[in-house]
Amino acid sequence: MDLFEKRIQNLGPLGKYADRADGYFMFPKLEGEISNYMKFRGKEVLVWSLNNYLGLANHPEVRETDAKAARDWGLAYPMGARMMSGQTVYHEQLERELADFVGKEDAFLLNYGYQGMVSLIDSLVDRHDVIVYDSEAHACIIDGARLHMGKRFVFPHNNMENLRIQLERATKLTGESGGGILVITEGVYGMTGDQGNLKEIAAMKKEFNFRLLVDDAHGFGTMGATGAGTHQEQNVMDEVDIYFGTFAKAIAGIGAFVATKHSVVDYLRHNMRSQTFAKSLPMPIVIGALKRMEIIRRQPELKDNLWKIVNALQSGLRNAGFNLGPASTPVTPVLLEGGIPEATQITVDLRENYNIFCSIVTYPVVPKDVILLRLIPTAVHTLKDVDYTIKAYNEVREKLNAGAYAKEMYDISVL
User: In sequence order, what are the beta bridge partners of 357?
Assistant: First the structure.
């Protein structure tokens, strides 16, 4: 069978909706300055779907630094991979500052978060080692584990009893193979908004010999007293062996880093294929990240503003009777009962009649009878935004319970 024909006949769980969903439900275009209000299809909407947690995307100092760095350096410098010709004192400075911020000896810059995690896992384990990871781990962790040629075990989300069982299995196997064990979890889970049980996992080191890798994409800059991350929030900074953070969220950029012991970072510098064979991060991104880190340290009120909005939004929704599950981080999921048809109609109603733009998540990401309205509060949102959204959600829930959305109120074919 022709390879292209095989793919075209099966477009995948999302691709099969492309003819009706692209441009509205998938690949929507948000335009204008990144903030709490942007334009969608020519209309101003209140946006709750951007991971601009600290509001740094359009911070005046950030914009000025980004623009100046682009003028001074261009996007080409430095040319080549860092190992060959792409090393600069600024890359080294950023690594030192990141390591210090998250409480580790050293750090290594990575070009992308997703690619970085996949390559990190691939670099850390060989066929004799065993990976044990949380069932709700991000796709980058799952894809990294799929590359592993050895055994991998999964435990139900935050289920410590089952993790113990998997660690017992892994310990037996590695005892025979001479391998090691890598446990992978997240600091903040991006859909459910709860935290990985870092403290309980770390406590198991008293019984089992393993290393703990934490993907803290949503926790870096938002969790803990200084924003160092979820490992700071749970007071297990030393027990987390490998800390992974990204620039795409709290510091509003692109790229990532891994922080751990100096000896391990030195190993990664010489063995992480995605970095050995990829161009170094362009200078404007590095200079911009240094400015962002400076602002985070100098302006703790940004994180304070974020949490003011988070607490108002989550307490207001819970007081109104909404189910947010175990959310204890800025990620705010609102769980409703219904399927894809109702979710589709709710999306249109929110965007067209309430001018609210948020992410709507349905099966297969969540169970078939669940609709997840995912809100991402930021430091640039206001309490007025919070009050308006809670009022709108109350009205949407009333319509849902009355069966209004099951009647296809809106013809999505004309959107």
Answer: 47
